[in-house]
Write a structure and sequence with these properties.
70% of the residues lie in helices and 2% in strands. It contains 12 helices and 2 strands, in the order αααααααββααααα.
Length: 260
């Protein structure tokens, strides 16, 4: 009889009893989520970061998600679980701090240049304007974007919002799951979600398309390249540039959000 339990019944029984064997069955049921998230994050990381390591970090997130998931919430476990798995992998990568300081510094320089130019021009600056502001050639600017994309997660997953001392929540997840925030940060989440939506809407068309296809349609960078008729590395540059623009715009919104 136990073998025929459907997933909903499995959840109810686990939450009622806390039985470890039932928890392990839920872990097996949702293990493909870990593989999926690790694969997506891994595609943007340097070759020396093993996907197997990402899977093990993500598994910790999955276990935590299963133990903490509230069946009473009007949200699918997959949505909640993916956010937890992603957060667990990114936290572990952050603690390793493997992004070279020079790359981190260059990303901040570009972000700052974009913010300053937007303030002056009241529109999204183009590559030529950003390069000139940084005092480098356009080719050097494109090389910098590639380097950042290779050694940094450079993604919306990194745009954390303050969650009142609770678990960090990625802004991309709050777009899809307004309930993800801790209650005391709900107002800040709403403001940041709106700010992110507006910032995405104001991106140059090709960058907006890359962000939409990657985060909402869940295409890989290679698949987006096929759609746009450009190389995967070109898509990687567009993606990184879009994220740096979004970070520059959201810096202001985040600094005004209450910290709890």
């Amino acid at each position: 009889m136990e073998a025929s339990l459907d997933t909903n019944a499995l959840w109810r029984e686990f939450k009622r009893t806390g039985d470890r064997a039932l928890r392990d069955r839920l872990i097996l049921t949702y293990a493909p989520l870990v593989k999926y998230v690790a694969g997506r994050l891994g595609s943007g990381l340097p070759a020396h970061v093993e996907e197997g390591d990402l899977v093990s970090y993500g598994l910790l997130g999955l276990i935590g998600a299963i133990e903490r998931f509230d069946l009473g919430r009007d949200i699918k476990f997959e949505t909640y679980g993916i956010a937890r798995i992603k957060g667990s992998i990114i936290d572990e990568l952050r603690s390793m701090d493997w992004v070279p300081r020079s790359v981190r510094s260059r990303a901040r320089d570009i972000e700052r240049a974009i913010a300053q130019l937007e303030g002056k021009l009241h529109r999204a600056p183009n590559d030529e304007e950003i390069s000139a502001h940084l005092g480098i050639t356009e080719e050097e600017f494109q090389d910098a974007l590639l380097e950042i994309s290779r050694s940094s997660i450079a993604a919306l997953d990194e745009l954390w919002s303050g969650s009142g001392g609770g678990d960090p929540v990625a802004l991309i997840d709050t777009l899809e799951d307004p309930e993800a925030a801790e209650p005391q940060a709900a107002m800040a989440q709403t403001e940041l979600r709106e700010a992110l939506g507006e910032a995405i809407a104001r991106l140059p068309e090709r960058e907006k398309l890359v962000v939409t296809l990657y985060y909402y349609e869940e295409l890989t960078l290679r698949e987006i390249g096929e759609v746009l008729g450009v190389t995967e590395s070109r898509v990687s540059q567009l993606h990184t540039k879009a994220i740096l623009r979004l970070k520059a715009r959201l810096a202001g919104a985040a600094s005004h959000a209450p910290s709890g």
